[in-house]
Amino acid sequence: MTAVPGELPIASDPAGTGQAAEDLRTLFGQSIAVFASLVGPEHLVETANPAFFAAIGEQRARTGVPLVEIMPELADQGFIALLDQVYRTGEPYTGRDARIVLGEEPHAREAYFDFTYEPRRDAGGTVIGIRVIGVEITQVKHAQRLMAEHRAMLEQIARQAPLAEVLDGMARCIENLAPQEMLVSVLLADPDGKHLRHGAAPSLPDFYNQAIDGIATGEGVGSCGTAAHRREPVIVTDIAADPFWADFRDLAGRAGLAACWSTPILARDGSLLGTFAMYHRTPRVPQDTDLALARVFAGTAALAIERHHIEQAKLAAEAQARAAHDELAKAVRAERELRAEAEQRAAAAAELNAQVRAAAAAQATAPHPERCQLGGTQECTAPAEIKIADSWGDSAWGCPGHVEEAILNVRAVFIASEELGGLAAYLNR
């Protein structure tokens, strides 16, 4: 299978081994419904099932070349134009009872098909190819339903629907598609990969989901814990007899579970994202189609979980950026407030200094002691220049420095000068 850059895989294929193509062949290979997967605007045949090549002629069974090169008769019958339309618009096309002449004379034959052209999209929603599904009616209905459900899930992921909603819808879809009763569970790995948490399990009983929420990953820890530990599928066909379920056998019995097939959900780098499990009410061995279906939807779950992790990381980064911005704004506001307060203090100090100078000039001729009386036990040898008083009638003479200090730090102290609103003004207020 040729890898296509940017293609959204229909199945997980981290090692690039062609597993996705193999899964498609498993799902459709034994069917009489024809299937082909086309890529690019030239509609290169990437893969096709035996029924497709049988329909067009085994001698024309080739891949890696444009469909029109294998079947040139399609060009004149409008089918290549329809492929171009689907590729251009991204809208699927379904034909009913379509007549087609296959091959060229003298080997041409008339045939009728019900068919669907389904666009293939990458993670960004861009059309990168087309899937062709032809009818035998029973098989094609199942295939169309599968592709429609798968496409709907991809659209949910593309529009960033909540992860729980995507996983719950996926589980219900698989349960509805299964020909026999099946119960689906998705567990999500903790960041350290050592425990599994509940993701989705719409049909399992609540007590069972609660009991396995947080189970460890490790060898022999049920189907899911072991699959997560091994990074490979673990198939338990009979829970009652399997040693992996020794610690959970009674729990499974109360939930009515008899078989569990678990597939690890892996990121593109191989790291563990979770597990995808299919439960059954009776012991059962999986068919190839069961395993292929598990891989298809494990790949889809991986895409949804990785997209969720990216979105959560983005939200966390944005929250961190907002918090940093808020802290910066807070610091700027505090700095502005401190600057304004400092400016106010400077203005008040300048005003007080001016008042002190004016008082010193006004009181220069008044009788006063020679030295400052405000130095306390340290005494001050500076000349006394200004008289201050308080509301109790006490007064003293001081130097400008001690006068400013007293006015700033002692309540109800003021310059004793009538012209400057001193004690007389206070007494006559």
TrEMBL record:
<feature type="domain" description="GAF">
    <location>
        <begin position="158"/>
        <end position="315"/>
    </location>
</feature>
<protein>
    <recommendedName>
        <fullName>GAF domain-containing protein</fullName>
    </recommendedName>
</protein>
<dbReference type="Pfam" id="PF08448">
    <property type="entry name" value="PAS_4"/>
</dbReference>
<feature type="coiled-coil region">
    <location>
        <begin position="325"/>
        <end position="359"/>
    </location>
</feature>
<dbReference type="InterPro" id="IPR003018">
    <property type="entry name" value="GAF"/>
</dbReference>
<keyword id="KW-0175">Coiled coil</keyword>
<dbReference type="InterPro" id="IPR035965">
    <property type="entry name" value="PAS-like_dom_sf"/>
</dbReference>
<dbReference type="Pfam" id="PF13185">
    <property type="entry name" value="GAF_2"/>
</dbReference>
<dbReference type="InterPro" id="IPR029016">
    <property type="entry name" value="GAF-like_dom_sf"/>
</dbReference>
<dbReference type="InterPro" id="IPR013656">
    <property type="entry name" value="PAS_4"/>
</dbReference>
